[in-house]
Amino acid sequence: MSNPIEEYGFSALARDPNVLLKGQKNNTEPQPQSVNDVSVPDTPLARKVQDYAKQELRAETYNHSMRVYYYGIAIAKQQFPDWRFSGETYFLTCMLHDIGTTSKNLRATLMSFEFYGGLLALDLLHKELQAPKEQAESVAEAIIRHQDLGETGKITTVGQLIQLATVFDNMGGHADLIHKGTIEEVTKQFPRNKWSSCFSSTIREENGLKPWAHTTALGEEDFPNGVQNNKLMEPYD
Asked: What pTM does this model have?
């Protein structure tokens, strides 16, 4: 890919997944996907960011970030094969999308965690690690908007993919996009370790620290309760 809009996943998509699915539960019947069938980007940039995520994130959050990578690749390959983005850009987004939720970072700012996390990712990628400006901006935009769910307007390709994958892992949303065998394989390699309780507690922690947080737009009680009571992932928690 030589076009930065396509390479870094900026192509505009409908924000409403139901538009992309044309009102159906999926575009094609999902097939099992093994972790071994998906390569993790092995570039110097990807390795550095993965090491950073391992160091900064709780083990439960790091595992969630890896699951989101594998789920997103399954969704893109099987349901939306025409979507254009580099695997490295999506991987960087997955590794950093929850960097704003660490105890340190929640308390380092009055900003909502997604917004602060996007700024942290922009600085890390472009200023410190010399990633291309357009790539760093794609990751930052996707992080900022990864909880910007809605039915109107557009979003970047990487932004839509991280939304679909995080909502799937956190709340069991759009359950028909991914095969049960893929869930079993991914959770075996990257266990949830009570992720539903862990993340719902983080949501409540941020909302307590910052009653204005963007997370409240998803429902001050509905969102943490939906995460806590994720029936799709309950057998794997």
From this structure: 0.97
